[in-house]
Amino acid sequence: MWDPTTYLRYGDERSRPFHDLLARVPAQRPRAVVDLGCGPGALTATLAERWPDARVSGLDSAPEMVERAVALAAPVSFAVGDVRSWHPEPDVDVVVCNAVLQWVPDHQALLTRWAAELPAGAWLAFQVPGNFAAPSHRALREVAGRDRWRDTLTPLLREAPVDEPVDYAALLVGAGCAVDAWETTYVHLLPAAADADHPVLAWMEGTALRPVRAALDAAGWADFRAELGVRLAEAYPVRQGQVYFPFRRIFVVARTGARAEESL
Q1: Domains of the chain (ranges plus CATH)?
Q2: What is the DSSP annotation of 217-257?
């Protein structure tokens, strides 16, 4: 289960890649804009502000996220749904998929299908975390691989669930798109209070640790969390009252079809 409050602990840091992604989408007057994996909806609402004449909608598989999004009362249509079964309507000119596809096995096939189904000249923009080789995720896989948790957790944690920027670029060029692909490593400065959990542990609780928490009972989760916290404190020491947390992200903006030869 997704917890919107936990996810939004670091709202500013999590929202920055969304805005950096959208800065490279120069659509002027899209008819319809869709945010796939819209989460609690605040970022989706900014799409309605940017394109006030567009029909903006958000889709998320977590009912609790959609409930939070609907409560915003933004001029956006929110619904519960699975991105794997989503198909664009004929007037969808912009599709945004922010920090979602890492959860979707074989999402490369989805990207190819969306590129084919979108109208010519539409924009497909997505961002995925590229930090699965970082100390945080190595520690997570190491703890999950210990005898007590191996059978339960190892199947839940994929070592490389996303591709490199060049691979996404090649995939979408092959699908007839013009592509702009890049990566950015943000260095998040996370406050570290002496009486609080390690901030990287708190960060991971909002995303990477969600399937772990769902798979363990209360006692197992408490023990796992404590052991991982020790490893994270070693990997990301507190300096000057904060933790320096590098976070790599991969960005792709693709334009489909007949007008794809135009410059991005």
Answers
A1: 4-258 (3.40.50.150)
A2: -HHHHHHHHHHHHHHHHHHS--BTTEEEEEEEEEEEEEE-G
Is a pLDDT exceeding 60 seen at residue 261? no
H or E stretch covering 38:
none
- Beta strands, E only, the chain: 32-36, 55-60, 77-80, 92-98, 123-129, 178-191, 242-255
Q: Which residues pair with 182 in a beta bridge?
A: 251
Render pLDDT for 236-260 as a digit per residue (tens, 0 to 9): 999 999 999 999 999 999 999 844 4
Beta-carbon contacts of 19 under 8 Å, excluding residues fewer than 6 positions away, are 46
N-term to C-term CA, the chain? 38
For residue 84, what is the enclosing H or E element?
none
Q: Which token pair is 50?
A: 């940017």
User: What is the SS3 assignment for 38-95?
Assistant: CCCCHHHHHHHHHCCCCEEEEEECCHHHHHHHHCCCCCCEEEECCHHHCCCCCCEEEE
Instruction: Give mean pLDDT, residues 13-20.
Output: 94
Q: What value does the mean pLDDT take over residues 86-114?
A: 97
Report how far residue 2's alpha carbon sits from residue 242's, in angstroms, rounded to the nearest whole number.
27
pLDDT in tens, 42-65: 999 999 999 999 999 999 999 999
Residues 78, 70: contact at Cβ < 8 Å?
yes
**For residues 3 and 146, which has the higher predicted lDDT (pLDDT)?**
146
Q: How far apart are CA 162 and CA 143, in angstroms?
A: 22
